[in-house]
Amino acid sequence: MNCYADKIFIKGNVYTVDKFFSKASAIAVRGGNIMWAGADDQAEKYIGSGTAVVDLDGLTVLPGLIESHMHVLMYGEKLMNIDCFGKTKTEILREVKTAYENACPGQWITGAGWDETKWAGKKLPAKEELDEVSPDIPVFLTRVCTHLSWANSAALMVAGIDGKTADPAGGEIHRTPSGDATGVLVDTAANIVQRLAPPMEGLRREKAYILAQSDLLANGFTAVHDLALWEPYDMNSIKFIARLYEKGLMKISISSYISAEHAEEIYELGPFSGAFGGKFSMRGVKIFADGSLGARSAWLLDDYADRSGHRGNCRYSDEELYAMMYEARKNGFQITTHAIGDAANNQVINIYDRLLKNLPEPADHRLRIEHAQILRRDDMKRLLELGVIPSMQFTQCTSDIGMTEKRIGDSRLEGTYAWRELIDGGAVIPGGSDAPVELINPFHGIYAAVSRKNRSGQPDGGWRPEQKITRKEAIRAFTIWGAYASFEERIRGSIEIGKKANLTIIDRDVMSCPEEEIKDTNVVATILSGEKAYGEFLM
Questions:
Q1: What is the mean pLDDT of the chain?
Q2: What is the model's pLDDT at position 1?
Q3: Which of 9, 128, 316, 360 could form a Cys-Cys staple with 27, CB 3.0–4.6 A?
């Protein structure tokens, strides 16, 4: 029997991220899967006349990284539209003006990433500023948190929003003292405008997916959890992604989480996993319980420290939320719920508890909460007891340090981004970026997790340093814990026999380099099923 490898990697610094976080220097691949990993002096027995040998020359190898929370189409769309990230208001308006001058009939001007807290004056924008550079073409720009949007008068007019329009449930239309809409829309209020924008279809939509995939591969990702947001998944969306795989355009693995509001047709299909050679799964449903701290729409138990009388936006009543979750679980779907504020997390944990009592099977539920940013002590305890997975985005903590303190005040910081306590209590924390909300680079996330600092190295010693996690834990968050969170730990997430030969090869040892250098790590190559998907050299 032929027991030779198709390909063997030697002379590497390999972290298997198995149960023992073992070290190796060589990896043998056969049929796209790992057939062996161990020391170089044992590798020769796997090398035959047809075996390709790749000398890693000491490079560090991790299991193929997993992005556990992002929005693939939205990220690709960001790469095609106006990028407001890190830009001043003047720079954004200049780009809108250029887009206006080059616009085609029927086109809207869209973009994302603005952040008023980084602008002089730190004030929210107004529709009149956009009207000056785009008087008759709708403009719709999403804030960096994705829970706040800035529209011009043309966009508001198309949507029928004026001073008499009531706030929708779970949203808010910002108004002037006289009651006129300012152009700033929160959560579901933004949906009124967003749903009228020309849909991204055909070749343009295909291009967005391909651009997003290119960035994912360049950052070492081999799999992604695609969480529904502004691009709600319906049957047409699932079919579109399937066609990309059929055409050979999609190579990265996608676990899709569909929007519960658009799930009726999907429920008829039922969950599936492992399509297209184990690359495409659709077994999860996502629900929103609240908004974001940046938009002051995260639902809090007490008033915002910087907006008296305001506690954010509850999306659904308890009964509405329970009904959606019951339907999803009854149809065999994993459930994940966006919850940031302590009131939202309390509501979700209460309903998860009720749901598991009424529908106890399957016992291995892997219910998730996306973000879980602000937790009361007793809710944290119940989350752990129920076995709920807190899916967290480490760079959101370090990007929002100052803003978080202003929004909720010092007295409520104790249970905020409580990574250390959650892990010590037995939680698995899958890591992600929430891109395009944050930069997609996973090594920024690993650095934030172990240092509690932003990319500028602030604050000294880290923010609430008692909640730091170890390097091993941070790497697990972007590998095996991500795989576990989508029921895929048997096929990916570690370098072990029988798993996909997905590897991320990097230019430094993130386990031993100075802490400040972790964020500067570069990806040398990304390997999918033993084949190079990104990289200028090797193989």
A1: 95
A2: 58
A3: 9
